[in-house]
Amino acid sequence: MSARLLIYFLVALVCAVAGAALAVHHPLWPTGMLVLLVCAAVLEATVPGAWLLVVPAGLPLLNFSPWTGWIAWEELDLVILALLAGGYGRLALECGARRAVVGIAADLRQARLCGALCLVLVVTGGWSLLRGVADAGGWVFDWFGAYQNAMNSVRVFKSLFFAVLLWPLLSRQLRTNAARAEQLFSVGMTLGLAWVCLAVLWERANFVGLRNFSSNYRTVATFWEMHVGGAAIDVYLAMAAPFAVWALLSASRASWWLLASLLTLLTGYACLTTFSRGVYLALGVQVVVMAFARWGPALWARRSIRFRGRWARWRIAGTLVVVTLLLLEAWAVLGGDSFMESRIASSTQDMGSRWTHWHSGLKLLHSPLDWLAGKGLGRLPANYAANVAGEDFSGSVDFQSELRDDGKAHGFAVLRTPDDLNTLPGTYALTQRVALATGRSPVFEADIRVYAPTDITVLLCQRHLLYDRNCQGIALRLSAPLGAWQTVRAPLLGRDLGGGALPITFALSVDTPGASVDIDSAQLLDGQHQPLLINSDFSHGLAHWFPAAQSYFVPWHIDNLYLETLIERGGLGVLCLGGLVIWALARFLLIPGLRGPVATSMAAGLLGVLVVGLVSSVLDVPRVALLLYLMPLWLVGKSIYHGETQ
Questions:
Q1: Confidence check: pLDDT of 95 > 70
Q2: At the fourth CATH level, which superfamily is domain 396-551?
Q3: pLDDT tens, residue by residue, 466-509
Q4: What residues does each domain of the chain span?
Q5: Measured between alpha carbons, how far is 375 from 385 in angstroms, rounded to an integer?
Q6: Between helices 561-590 and 347-362, what is the axis angle to 10°?
Q7: For strand 468-478 and strand 454-463, is the pairing parallel, antiparallel, or unpaired?
Q8: Helix (H) or strand (E) holding 119
Q9: Among 4-13, 93-102, 280-289, where is mean pLDDT lowest?
Q10: Reported pTM
Q11: Of the candidates 591, 615, 527, 45, which has an alpha carbon nearest to the alpha carbon of residue 282?
Q12: Which of 52, 157, 328, 467 is the most buried (most CB within 10 A)?
């Protein structure tokens, strides 16, 4: 057995086992996830390169954290592991059968250099992972781990891990059929972008109104990682928006062109309603880059640009109409009494706050080793909250268990607030999505233990993620002997929330600074006394329970890609990631044969995320971080295998 065959087989086996473990522990659909795992693995094994369509298309959708309670894991992880198992299984079979992969010649020197860089990325990332685990106090596995423990290091590491494992599958496709690979990935990115745009339309239509641009409402679409703030949707749109232009320019039929035009307009609306100055600047940079890549060489050579044929002239006229409509969208969103107007007016104040925030983050690096290797992956939030005065987490939730009088171990949730809660302008709640048939007279019941007089708030709200629309609720003052459990029962007051299509979220928060509240047997009963909450006794840990913050998100993000990389991964991490990105962009600029529509969209997306990264964190959202790794690897791989076919 050759070493390569053994490696392929072991990777396939490990990925299959890891994917199966995720599937069987899925809080909602373990059987369905196992079926999905098998289907994805078989798909990639029988249709090589299928992952190029599945991963970007499913990336915005394959996360159900508000329903599962997972934070460190998501359904996308399971699908990628399945695709890796199928892909590496096929590579092992081909290697065992001694079937040579027929394709174009590779630049061996560049291929070896890329392989070495991938190895360095994994080694330095693994070192940062180990430092993060050590900084968190050691390895403790938790299916529902949050941002304070070692599972956050694993959460941040997995995007790099997946990207490096996907590299051999990507390089194989680029070598054997680059055109097909480009088509699959571009269609996948376009589909993913379409899902996000539709989610944006639904969210704004139901919670603020499609034409309401004055309300302080920031869209999140399907990026549930924003339950603690951040810029997940901003970063994703910065990377995906160029593929709407790709769809528009590459459409070969009028029907496809019309769909691409609609997608372009929806993408413009989604980008504008992020009200993100970083996204606006990124779009400007991308328009210049893509226009130059398409028409710059001809203009530089002083050749006239001619459009021949009725279809070509019609497309030019149609494109001018689309551009005009995009400008009208921008005028509608930014003109008049717009929320963006107030954001622009406060730019100077915001920049001052950012400088203070960044300076406080840099102070976390105490030793030369910190500057070299960082504090460890995923350790920025916990270190920032613990070491920066007045910037603690607005709350935290843990799972604990204890023996009761019946001799059995009972699980319960522990919800805590910091001592300086009064200075933190937001709430931190333990939430769960509920299916509410009728909103009349819901009743809250729970066994609760407090250690001092404590105020809690129970809410049932129409909420997508960060903002409440209509609510029922009650504020309770709890007091009991130290260590004694008490049963609390109270009706929720407010308007009827039932009968609509809007998502309903149950939320329980603690309002007393420095308080710790133990919660067990938490239940919400509807008008027919039917229980609405799942895992109400926490017998399955924190499954189905999702912690969410509102208004205050400072310790969770440093709001800068470059400082984020430096603080968590150190100078070595900056050099490795920066080296990959610079190498990819340099190859794109220096090799004319690489400047096709797909590569141009990727280069524009990469530049877009670098611009948004000036004011936003990126690597703390694994889904979008995966694209940040894949796009430069793609450009480098294309330069390695472009050969004479360009």
A1: yes
A2: Galactose-binding domain-like (2.60.120.260)
A3: 999 889 999 999 987 777 899 999 999 988 886 677 899 999 99
A4: 396-551
A5: 14
A6: 100
A7: antiparallel
A8: helix 108-135
A9: 93-102
A10: 0.94
A11: 615
A12: 52
